[in-house]
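note to self — DONT lose this again. spent like an hour looking for the file last time. sequence + predicted structure for the chain T wanted, 99 res
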Amino acid sequence: MFIAKVVGNVWATRKHKELNNYKLLLVKAIDPYAPDKFSGDTALAVDGNVGAGPGDVVLVVDEGGSARKILGNPKSPVRTVICGIVDQVSSKSEVKKYA
């Protein structure tokens, strides 16, 4: 799992039939306390029906078995799924709010 920022939409004229009702988004990992500080590569992620969109800070699962369980479909050809929108992150005395 990692925290990321949604940086774009993906439009597909053809998708695998198991993904027809899902939104595809581009996400990029961030430092939770510095959301403008990106790390790593941009990844394609399926929105697990949480309603995420560009600009949102999200929680991403990057493991196939867990991703398919979130979608509730063992036949889904996925590895990376957005499983939540992050409102805030807190650690010890530091709190970063996003919403």
